[in-house]
Amino acid sequence: MESDMESSTSTPAEPPTTSPPHDVEATEDEYALNSDYEDSDAGSAECRAASPDAGPRFQTAANDVPPSATARRAALAQKKQERERWNHVIDNWLELEGQDLTKLANDTKALKKMRKDGWETDPDHFPVHEEFPGLYDGAFGPTAEVLGFAESPLELFLFFLPRKFWLKVKKESNQYYNQKLPGRMEAKFRAQTGDNQLTLEQIFANEKRLHKKIEAHEILQCVGMLLARMLCPHTRRLSDRWATSSVGAIPVGSFGRFLKRDRFDRIMRYLHFSNNAAPEAATDKAWKIRPIVETLQRTFRSGYQTPPILSFDEAMVPSRSRFNPTRQFVKDKPHRWGTKLFMICCAQTAYCLRLEVYCEKNEQQATSGPTPADDNSGPAATLRNMNAVLPPKQDGVYYAVVTDRFYTSIQSALQLLERNVYSVGTIQTNKKGFPPALVQEKSKRPKDIPRGTTKIVVAKSAPQMSAMVWFDNTIVYMLGCGTSTSMSTCDRRLPRTQGQSETIPCPSAMKAYHRWMGGVDVHDQLRLQRYSLQMSLRFRKYYKSLALGLIDIAIVNSFIVYREACKIRGEPPADHADFIAQLHAQLLAIGPAEFVDTMYSPGPATPTCDDASSTSGRHRLEMDDEWVEVNGIRKRRQRQCKVCTIRKTVRSKRQMTRFYCAKCSKGSKR
Fold this sequence. Notes:
- By secondary structure, the protein is an alpha+beta fold.
- The chain folds into four domains: 2-94, no CATH class; 150-191 and 198-243 and 251-276 and 536-588, no CATH class; 303-530, Transposase Inhibitor Protein From Tn5, Chain A, domain 1, CATH 3.90.350; 599-665, no CATH class.
- The protein is 37% helix and 16% strand.
- The protein has 21 helices and 21 strands.
- The strands form six sheets. Strands 1, 4, 5, 6, 7, 8, 9, 10, 11 and 12 form a ten-stranded mixed sheet that branches. It has a three-stranded antiparallel sheet with strand order 15-16-21. A two-stranded antiparallel sheet has the order 2-3.
- α13 (290-302) runs parallel beside α18 (542-569).
- The longest helix is centred in the first third of the chain and has 28 residues, at 163-190.
- It is elongated and about 90 Å long.
């Protein structure tokens, strides 16, 4: 075929001897665009004009080439030139920058060639650079916005799960009650036996008389009660919390002081977070908890400045329910069955910046950012979530992410490097582009190789990237971008000894991995191994258990911010149990006034000043938009409450508030 093609392109195509019919006559543009020869001028106007047998239809000047044909030839020439440039780069393994890194990540043939000769094995030719050059060294941690609420555990909790969210939960719970009401009443009607049976209308009337709409503050009071049960559990049954008499050393229940048992049961029965009738309910496996996830994604990001080093890993929200469509099995986790979350945490404080529910590979929500070259769920999730939390790209400013072998690949590392993100992690040897020279036959270290032996290779096209094999008791494969190729040391336990350890050599990348990988694991320990709202209670409905697991994550983030704020204020470190105890007490004290924008002030029983009459009537509360800095912490200004001042009976007692009525204040908030 190639010889036939070459012979056909060497001479111009002869024009037809007879004119075609009028209805099939082609224009010059159509003839040029439909030419069979992309690399020849057989269909060009110059060739047709030079032909002595060309008819009048083909007689045209050389400078009258149609624009579409010219643009097409220019595009083909540019494409050919780019292909030649790229082949030259790959053949000589020139250093890549910018978009060429992503181009290499998407070029399967180039990655195959990279396995063979794309790695430098001679240590004398390794580049010399410090670890993570250009790593971001600016401020990071809790934002000024969230630090303004850091004096109160409740305000921190409501920052991450705001009042608007709980108003939505109230709306969806009442809607869910209305959706289930006809079916429940009909089932109750059919279940009647004996004489004096009620009609369906009477059953509906009784239900309407007994039921009260669920309120947002009642839902938060239920959360506070569950926190109390978590701190001080009665493991026999939840109803013991409403016991009216003590038995020996077992005290009476205390929950009845805050909410009646039947009311608590009704609220928890109809607790709901999304509309079952929405179209997304049929396609989104995580639709039942989607509002919580979206709220946490937004508030977690706004509450923390991106740190220089992040850890990315999966976390489990325990759930063994077979009705849970997002249930996964992860054998290496303490809770092997549950909903898997992709989480990005600060490597230093374990604060969760973003979470994403895993809903099968082909159902992950599309987000802005580059298309992942490695479409496996792990590396694709790393790239997707990193793009969601990183600030805009700046020249010379880099961040770093630490992953394990399920989320590391050469393709994702190249794409992250283009985004000014270094990556460090263990890696599987079957990933595209990984050098086979490092792969060992067995997974255990041979006895003739000393423990701590390391072999390192450096990518020729990306000198920041290095792959290595480290001989511990088991053989560990690593991939590092931005890490140094120098060696360090680490302490490892000796086998079959009682805690004895030895110092062995290790690559700098391995030491960085050991230091920074635990961010997600520490967050899981705070959530599941200390105090877990989810693990303190079981539900028949799987999504309620998942919702409590997500609330646990919000509580852990609140505690981390509270702990960091204590450090800033120079106070002693915060205690986790004390924080939860304060939070539960504040949740139980919440009333309906926390969730209304418009309320009626009761007015003083005994007016004491001329302006007392102005406190009665209709008021619209607004939050003070002024901010002050107290001990280096930015928070909203608080002033003395006018209503409390009029009604107070103790002279020294003062009540401060951030809210005021603009109409009554008449321009002055004092």
